[in-house]
């Protein structure tokens, strides 16, 4: 947020105070004003200001205009010794002014420690991978980075959203089964102050139009979430959705004191995922309308803006260029969810 300046006031001639053995009312007021200012100055210098918890969206500085997001790659079941990142995640981040590097699925603690010190945020994508030690390390290290004064966001989409719940609860069996594969729905925003949906009034679209693309068999029912203190004390449920059986489940969360955010739906699909049958009909239930794109873009803008709030960076521009995926070739592979991928050698 930019500095605020008080207007420059032009000086006007002032009449001399009349000296009749006392200062008069105006003189007393002047003395009291000076004393008040002195007291305020003493208090400001002696009493420490309250520190904002990590993740708050109070006025803040932008440290990195073009942040770099690490996306966690996953094992590619169709190839041996390969990992992938679905390309729409990269496009979604880049559409908001960010860039992307890969976080290897089985990266070592040392590799992750070095990389997390260079990037500005992490995205756990959707998929069908197993929660592993690397994911746990990323989550705990991100907490430590925030506790040490750096604003370091995490975003989870679909399975990535589920990972956040599992990691915080330390319970991989916490999820509930739902019927929400290949469906596009509205979401119900939970009223109250929050950072994510308070970012833009565009999100009101999501309550009235079915723009949220769901491709998941698991989530967490709202009643289950409310009854789980270890989770609802750390995360705030921001929105809910209903599956085909009418069961209400949590659709969006944010951590109360950390910049950690998750959505059960796929905002990257609205603008970047298309697949048609031979008859021209879209295979997936994805809304590509203008309003759907606006909501998707606002979510990307929010997350990338959060990542601008820390100053992590690569040592040199050449090291940065070697890491970002902007020139990495994509591969087209028909699949039930995504069609275009970035493939990597899992041993590298």
Automatic annotation (TrEMBL):
Subcellular location: Secreted, Extracellular space
Any one Gene Ontology BP term: tetrahydrofolylpolyglutamate metabolic process
Organism: Aphanomyces euteiches
Predominant place of localization: secreted
Transmembrane domains' residue ranges: 23-47
Family matches, as InterPro entries: Class_I_gatase-like, Pept_C26_g-glut_hydrolase, Peptidase_C26
Keywords: Hydrolase, Membrane, Secreted, Signal, Transmembrane, Transmembrane helix
Active-site residue numbers: 266 (proton donor)
Pfam families, per database record: Peptidase_C26
Homology family: Belongs to the peptidase C26 family.
The protein's name: folate gamma-glutamyl hydrolase
EC numbers for this chain: 3.4.19.9
Gene Ontology molecular functions: gamma-glutamyl-peptidase activity
Assigned GO CC terms: extracellular region; vacuole
